[in-house]
Structures are given as C-alpha cells and as structure tokens.
Amino acid sequence: MDEPVELFDTVAAGRIDVQATALLGGDGYVLMQRAGQAAWQCVLQHWPQARRLVVVCGPGNNGGDGYVLARLARQSGREVSVLHPRGAAPRSALAQRACTDYLAIGGHVEVSPDCLRQAELIVDALYGIGFSRAPEAADAALIAAINAAGVPVLALDVPSGVDADSGKVPGEAVRAGRVLQFIVAHRGLYTGTALEFAGQRLLADLDLPPPALDGIAASVQRWSKPALSQYLPRRRLNTHKGESGHVLCVGGNHGAGGAVMLAAEAALRSGAGLTSVATRGVHVAPLLARCPEAMAHGIENIAGLDALLARASVVALGPGLGQDAWAQALYAAVLASGKRLVVDADALNLLALEPRPLPQAVLTPHPGEAARLLGTDTASVQQDRFAAAQALAGRYSAVVVLKGAGTVVASPGQLPRVIAAGNPGMAVGGMGDLLTGVIAALCAQGLALFDAASTGALLHALAGDVAALDGERGLLPRDLLPHLRALANP
Q: Which residues sit in the known binding site for (6S)-NADPHX?
C-alpha cells in the first residue's frame, strides 16, 4: 500500500479491470472480493479500535466493494450499518451479488443518514472512478452529512465527488482522511483541488497477474524525493566551476530588485558554478551587499546585455522584469540570443501578448499566467491541470511547469510528471522567483530541460517542506535557501 510512481487515467484503469477479470476466469466478483478484503485489511491496520462502522454504498461496483467490506467487518464481530441513498439500491450485477452476500449473514441496510452519528469510522463507497459530475441534491446532502460527522473517513478508490482523471471537484465531495485505490493509482488525486479531499493515498494492487497490465501505459509519473539522487549525482573530485554552468538572471525592474536576487541566490544554492544578474543599475549595490557571489550588472539599455548573454549557459528571464520599454527590450534581446531559457513572471505575460514557439525554454506559469498564455481563465486551467499543462507545452513547443498544489511538468512527447511535495506556506510572493533560479541552475549543470524542470520543481518543493516544519504561515522564500543546498546533495 505504498505511494505509487505511475498514475493512470480512468480509461486505462477500466481496461486493466477487464483484462484482469479475464485472467481470473471471467468472474468480476473475484476482483470485487479482493478489493473488499484489501479495504478490510486497511481498516484493521489503521483503525483497529473502531467497533462501529457505517459503510456508505452507491448503486455501482464501488458500492459492491463496500458491501464486501461490510460483510467481512460484520463477520469479525464489528457493528456495521450499510447506508445508501434512498432509491439507490444496487444496480450492477456484481453489486447486487455483494449485497445479497452481506444480507445473507444478517446484515441490514439504512436509508437515513442518522446512523452516521453512531459511527466510529465511515467508509465511502458511494461513487466510483467514472463519476465526474456534481452530485445531485440528495447525494450532496449525504456527502455533507459524512463530512459533518466528525469521524475518520476511508474512501474506496476515490473520494466521492472528486474527478479521478482531472482532480476537479464540481460540487460536494467527501473529505477522506485516507483513500485506498485499487489496482492502479488515479492521477486526478495528486493535483489541484483533489488534494483537499484525498488525504493519505494508499494503493492495493489486489495481487493481479502481471499480464493484466499488458499494453496499458501510465499517463503521469509521480515525481518524489528518490528522483533527486538519480538526477543530482555527486560531483567528481577534479571538477571546476565552469563545468557547473553560468546562469544569467535578467529582471529586477524598479521596485522589484528582490525578485531577481532571489532567483540568483537560488541558482547559486542549487549548484550553478557562476551566476550573473542583469538588472537596473540602482539595484547593483544592494544586491552585491546581500550576495557578493553574484556578479551584478546595471543594464539601462540592451547595449550592455550582449556580452553577458554570450557568456551565459542558460538565462533566467522574468523575475521582477516588468512590462515597460526597458523590460520589452531585454525580453526581445534574450529571446533573440538562442540561449536555453527559464521564463517566468512578466516574461510570461509578454509572451502571452505575442505567442511564439520556444523549444529551448522552460515556462513556469502559475494558473493565472497559464490562463493568459492559453487565452482562457484561471478556473478552466484548474479544472484540469494535466490538460492545461499539456496544452501549454504543445502551443509553445516548450517544457512547462504549471505551479500550484500538485505542480505538473509537461513537455511535448514526454509523460507528464506531478510533483509529490510542497505545502500551502509556499503560497507567497517570491517563491516562483526562487524556483526559476533552481531550474536554471540545473539546466546549467547539464540536465535536459524536462529533467531540470522536474527535478528543480521537486527540489524547490522539498526545501519548502523542510522550511515549513517551523510553521507554514509566515514562511518566506529565503527560508528555503539553506535547505536547497542540503537537498541538492543527496
């Protein structure tokens, strides 16, 4: 029941279920019983003291899994009630069979949510992974009652009301402390609004024969801490600073010098051999006072930028850049240089005004910037973060890091990655500037753009998690800097 690495969409999950059923003799009840047994083992492991269970069963096969769990719990001596919405008796043949077996041992079914008041544990088996619309009024009221009960909730496969493909929550949804996914993990539970409802995500593979997955590929990779050691190996003893690349950070318009400095410091702490800053002249002295390792240059027009661009391995473009004439001139010069880029903040807004392919770039938009780049609205981006990231990657021929809860990294021709780290304390100005510097540093050290973007987003998020151990509220971007260094040396 460990966290998975590969995440699947619901079409793939359905195909696996069909292939597994065929391999197990064609009787889908075998799988249903395995799912119910796995759920019961999960209850025993995590809530061994719970004596009164309420299992909320819907009319489909997800409800059937719940009936199997209810039967096993009752046979073990627990006090069990099955609750289903009025008029929502089992409709699938497998769910009917599971319900019959439950009733045969003396089990009973409730239609009033009043029984939730006596529960020590609620099991959500209302909807399955194919449900993607807002619940109707009666079901919405039942879900609200589950959430108001004040007891632990275990969801089977997916919290009811959460879209297992996209992670959107179009109406009421169950807030589950734990979710036990069956056979494969569902990509929608790892990003966006779904994170508010999914709690701890577990996986039971149901001991399927390996051929059950033949010909079926994951649609997303979960990118977690073990990836760091693969992509950030130890340096050889006989190394020099030139081998670790030269990052040029371009930005810091009037009133925004701190943004470009955060990017530069992050680049240095993430291992860049050299880091230069092209910014407004008024910012040079304070930037050098804060970080003498950065080579700060006052650039009032593009004449002084060419020499800096010639020496750079990668350019971090956008932190504090602004959109005035100065910003537009620097932006145009950087794009014309042909250098590998990490594009953030106002550079993204300038790109949205005149879209163009950037095949040597990493774009790092938050949902609002992503909406402008796609010509849509933020709500649409958040409705399906995987689709939005892939649409951006296709439109701009670039690697895209769609920031937010469950950051998504996409690139043309690559399997998207979702970052399994980060916390709400990181929702503060300057965090994106830091991320820009981290990714640029990894690009400068030789990682391919997609790997640099994925590893950089992970490194940044993990550093945020360590920094947040002292509390999320009040977390500042600079709090991450010492942890970037530590984590960049796995």
A: 61-65, 128-134, 157, 259, 320, 366, 433
